[in-house]
Amino acid sequence: MNFALIKLKLGMVVASVGVFLLGFALVYAVAGYFFGVAFAPAVIIGILSFLIVLNIVQWLFGPYLINAMYRAVEVSPTDPKYGWLVDLVDEVAMYNHLDIPKVYIADVPFPNAFAYGSPIAGKRVAITLPLLKILNKDEIKAVLGHELGHLRHRDVQLLMAIGLIPTLIFFLGYSLMWGGMLGEGNRNNNAGSMWLIGIALLAVSYMFQFLVLYINRLREAYADVNSATTIPNGAENLQRALAKITLSVDPNTLEKYKKRNNNQMMNMLFFSPMDINEDVSDMDVEQLINYWKTEKVPWYADFFSDHPASPKRIQLLERLKNSIY
C-alpha cells in the first residue's frame, strides 16, 4: 500500500479518536465539577440528545434546502442535453460499488460539484453549469469519483458526529456563562467562576473547530484518493480538473507563480468567485500542474481551510499516479 495512503488513513483515525476523547474528557470534567460526578452523565446526555435531534433533522431535510439554494434540477436519462451526465454518474457509481445516486444540475454561476443526501432524500450528486463548460467528460468523471468517494466513505455522517464535540463544548460553556451572569452559583463555586469557565469553554469550542477542519481536509484528500484508485486515469484527470477550475476563476494564477507572489492562491477545489473564464488552454493547465508538483507548501497554508492546499492535492495525486500506473 502507498505510504502516503497509510499516513492519511492513520491520521484520520488518530485525529477522529482524539477529538472524541479530548472533547468528552473536557466536558465530563467541567460538568462533574459544577454539577457533581453523579449528575455529570445526565447533563452531558441531555445536551447531546438535543444536539443529535437537531443534526438528524438537518440531515434528513437538508438536501431539499440545498436544492432550493442551488436551484438544482434533477436530470433524466432521456434529457437530450444532459442525459449523458446520468450515464457518467452511473459508470462512476459502478466503479465505486454504490447504488446509483440521483443527478442534478445546479444553476449557479460558479464551478462546483458536491455529493449529498439523506435516508429520506436518497443519495444525490450535483454539478453546476459552469463546471460542465470548463471540464471535459474524463475530467468530470474524475471529479465525480471524488464526490462519490464522500458517499462511499459516509463523510457527511462522520463529520456530523465529529462536529457534535465542539458544539457540545459550546453549549455547556454557553449554559455556564449565562448561569454565572444570572448569579446562579452552586455548592462548589460562585457565579463568577461559572462565567469565567463558560467563556473559556466557548474559546475551547472555537479551537476544536480547527481540529474538525483538519479532519475535513483529510477526508477531502481521501476522496481524491478514491478518484485516483477507482476511476481510470482518475489521478491525472483530477489534477487537470483542479488546474482548470483554478485558472477559470483566477486567470492570473500563472503570473502570480512567475512573480513568486502566490499568497492569494486558492486552496479549495470547489469554490470560486463569480467571474468565470471558460477559455483555459491546455498549455496553461500543464504549466500550473508542474508548478504545483514542485511547490513546497508550509504546514499553515491551509490551516483555516476545509480543503487541502491545491499543491498538496496535486502532489498526493502524483504519488498515487506513480504507484498505480
TrEMBL record:
Zn(2+) binds at H146, H150, E220. Its cofactor is Zn(2+). One of its GO terms (cellular component) is plasma membrane. Residues 84-319 form the Peptidase M48 domain. The keyword Cell inner membrane does not apply. One of its GO terms (biological process) is proteolysis. Its EC number is 3.4.24.-. It holds the Pfam family Peptidase_M48. The chain crosses the membrane at residues 12-31, 37-61, 158-181, 193-215. It comes from the Archaea. It is found in: Cell membrane. Binds 1 zinc ion per subunit. One of its GO terms (molecular function) is zinc ion binding. It is a multi-pass membrane protein. The active site is at E147. Keywords: Cell membrane, Hydrolase, Membrane, Metal-binding, Metalloprotease, Protease, Transmembrane, Transmembrane helix, Zinc. PANTHER family: PROTEASE HTPX, PROTEASE HTPX HOMOLOG. Belongs to the peptidase M48B family. This is Protease HtpX homolog. It comes from Acidianus brierleyi. The gene is htpX.
